[in-house]
Amino acid sequence: MSDNSVLFISVEPIELDLGGDSFTIQSPLYPNLYPNNAFKLWSFVADSGVYHLIVNTFNLENNYDYLYIGTGTFSPDTLLYSFNEFYLPEFIITNSSIWLLFDSDYSVQYDGFEIVISLIGEYMIFK
Known about the structure:
The chain has strands at 7-10, 14-15, 23-26, 38-45, 50-59, 66-71, 79-83, 90-93, 97-103, 112-120. It is mainly β. It is globular. Residues 1-5 have low confidence and may be disordered.
């Protein structure tokens, strides 16, 4: 793949069942360096429930390569988070559908990320 190429990968929505298996997403070529100009979209749908995301690895070029996370149908209007340097080790999203988009620029590559996604029935916040 040349430096000027664009990698675009989109998948059909991934259906998750409550209490079912988890699904792991990784940046392209993980654990190796992700390509320049990569653009990959994942979407998840469920009848109902709460998504639990566990970030195992996260290493992107700061201020240039991003992982975006949103709810509902993929759109800038449904964006919840954008990450490029730091990450939360795990977090909860309450919606029946979520999407994740990885976007890298034209230069500098890192080893990327690995995130495990599962659907849980409910959650509690302790204060």
